[in-house]
Amino acid sequence: ENLAADRVGRALEMEADRMQGLILDQNELKTEREVVKEERRLRSEDDPQGALVETLFAQAYLSHPYHWPVIGWFGDLDAMSLDDLQRHYDTFYSPNNATLLVVGDIKAESLLPTIKQLFEPIPRGPEPKPVMTMEAEQKGERRFLLKREAQVPFVMMGYRVPNYTSEDSYALDVLESILSRGKSSRLYQSLVYDQKLSLAVGAEYGLMQADPGLFYFYALVSPGQKVETVEEALTKEIKRLQSDPPTDLELQRAKNQVEAARWFEQDSNFRHAMLLGQAETVGAGWRKVDQFLDRIRAVTAQDVQRVARQYLIEDTRTVGTLIPLPPKQSDAPPAAAKQRKH
């Protein structure tokens, strides 16, 4: 919640109330289920690129929970019952499984007694079982095709990489910046500006995850260009970084971009709280936020080249291609024709 400093007590009262005595209703379940299903349609079902990302994770992770989208499949949503919701609430919505952050114009010495008064009486819940399933080593490239209504093809390739628990995560963050951040990045200069193979190109990596995640590249294929040509161009840029380390100028520019992004992320109390909360909740601890920039500044060109060689290898990647289908023809006459009949 974003609120005035003199109203923080009311927000804490509401959060404490949410941790106990939830009343579930079948009619509300039906209503909210449809709301969530509509969200899923917007994010994945009716968004070809969103559907490709979802399928990429499902193929890259076969046993780890990252296989499943957070919002769930339609089958999950349809099968959900009030008992399922109650069990989930009783297991996870308790003080021993929560992280509380308050950022802004406050005095800790006066606020902590209020927090203790509101949350301490709430009984502890069961300890949620930690995720013990670690994904087995991938031994061979995986490929899939996804056919959806779309205007142009889309290519994605994902590599499983470490999270914050590894020092390599900072070099991977800088690597992402060198390859994909801004119009001066290697991928944009090569695929969009020079070769005109792609309408858009980039990469995504986030080190602040509970378990090792996915470093993935994407490219929107320009009309008239071949998917294979775009994929080859992407792979070529990765291999170029593996053989030729970034220049001093590239390295410093990438670090500057990462640092600027981090400062902009903390331009509000809300965003600062989100950073601290995410670090604490995934297990890294809030101090990791303060250590981040020092770790980034310490990354060398050799570190970037080393992690590119170690993790961005073809035998452990998953490649997905969106094959565009033409829009389905509607059997209903167009609106203008209906009007002419009248």
How is the topology of this model organized?
Blueprint: H1 8-18, H2 26-45, H3 48-60, H4 74-79, H5 82-92, H6 108-119, E1 142-149, E2 154-160, H7 168-180, H8 186-194, E3 198-204, E4 214-221, H9 227-243, H10 248-265, H11 269-282, H12 287-297, H13 301-311, E5 317-325, H14 335-341
Describe the 3D structure.
Helix content is 51%, strand content 11%. It has helices spanning 8-18, 26-45, 48-60, 74-79, 82-92, 108-119, 168-180, 186-194, 227-243, 248-265, 269-282, 287-297, 301-311, 335-341, and strands at residues 142-149, 154-160, 198-204, 214-221, 317-325. Strands 1-5-2-4-3 form a 5-stranded mixed beta sheet, sandwiched between helices. The longest helix has 20 residues, at 26-45. The termini are far apart. The relative contact order is 0.14.
Number of helices: 14
Helix-and-strand structural type: alpha+beta
Query: What is the global morphology?
Result: globular
Q: State the distance separating the first and last CA atoms.
A: 54 Å
Helical percentage:
40-55%
Poorly predicted ranges? 336-342
Tell me the series of helices and strands, N- to C-terminal: HHHHHHEEHHEEHHHHHEH
Strand content: 5-15%
Radius of gyration: 24 Å
What is the average of the pLDDT values?
A: 91
Which strand order do you get reading across the main beta sheet? Answer: 1-5-2-4-3
Assembly classification: single chain
Number of strands: 5
Give a concise summary.
This protein has 14 helices and 5 strands. It has 342 residues and is an alpha+beta fold.
